[in-house]
């Protein structure tokens, strides 16, 4: 029989020494805990879908701008003046900066959620991130 660990004593160890009523109470408690865990999991799945949808949109917009400008420059290269090329290159550079900023923000948010503490090496202090 597999045992689910709860603290340092397994559920099977507890069940062997319980009355029927105590066993029912334990089962109800475990059921409630399982339901809470499932609700949390569903919430996390919804958040993940929302994050991926937003990231998809945020990345595609600058990439579409970059691709469109590069395509036009390639088609019209013989007719473009240096000032036109310079302006289009600035638009491309602006879109690239937006992508880099978005990447930094996403990485920082992921880091904050994975590692909710910050370490100050100079002071040798570990603090919970605000």
Q: What features would you describe in this structure?
A:
There is one protein chain. Helix content is 73%, strand content 9%. The protein is elongated. It is built from three helices and four strands, in the order E-E-H-H-H-E-E. Helix 2 packs antiparallel against helix 3. The model has no long low-confidence stretch (mean pLDDT 80). A two-stranded antiparallel ribbon has the order 1-2. Strands 3-4 form a two-stranded antiparallel sheet. It has one domain (5-116): Helix Hairpins (Orthogonal Bundle). It has 130 residues and is mainly α. Strand 3 (117-120) and strand 4 (125-128) form a beta hairpin.
Task: Provide keyphrases for this structure.
130 residues, Helix Hairpins, 3 helices, two-stranded antiparallel ribbon, 73% helix, mainly alpha
Low-pLDDT regions: none
Distance separating the two termini: 44 Å
Output the strand order for the largest sheet.
Answer: 1-2
What's the CATH topology name? Helix Hairpins
Assign the CATH class. Mainly Alpha
* Strand percentage: 5-15%
- Tell me the domain tally: 1
H/E element sequence: EEHHHEE
Number of strands: 4
Average pLDDT reading: 80
Question: What is the tally of helical segments?
Answer: 3
Looking at the overall shape, the CATH architecture is: Orthogonal Bundle
What overall form do the CA principal axes indicate?
A: elongated
Query: Helices and strands: which structural class?
Result: mainly alpha
Largest sheet: 2 strands, antiparallel
Give the % helix. Answer: over 70%
Gyration radius (Cα, Å) is 28 Å
